[in-house]
Amino acid sequence: MQDTFSAGVRLGGLYTLTEIKSLIGYMLYPVDEPIPRQMVLDILTGNGTANYFDCCAALDELERAGNFTEDENGLTLTDIGRQVAKELGERVRYGLRSEAVRA
Question: Hey, CA dihedral for 20, 68, 40, 3, is it positive or negative?
């Protein structure tokens, strides 16, 4: 039985904020244009990769840490965010990384 924290997350999904933040950075890294926040949430929650509330918390933490900026067009990695994404993004399982980037 799933609890609130695992609701909607498929087997093999992400359950820690560190993993979710790493995947978000990895998703944003190769994109040279802003991505709407809602699109990031839809990609991660729509296929059961992570819980909605954990994704929101991860995005908030990344923003507070200065890893991305947000404007009316969406999220854009900062130089710090690009460096962190490059270093930590590879820690997320390959299947989840490629699935997220394809989406």
Answer: positive
For residue 69, the surrounding DSSP H or E stretch is: strand 68-71
What is the distance between the alpha carbons of residues 46 and 43, in angstroms, rounded to a whole number?
5
Nearest Cα residue to 29 out of 67, 72, 70, 73: 67
Torsion of CA 87, 88, 93, 95, to 10 degrees: -70
CB atoms within 10 A of CB 100: 20
In eight-state DSSP terms, residue 17 is H
What's the rounded mean pLDDT across residues 3-19? 69
Q: How much is the pTM?
A: 0.79
Tell me the average pLDDT across 39-45.
Answer: 92
Contact 64, 81 (CB under 8 A): no
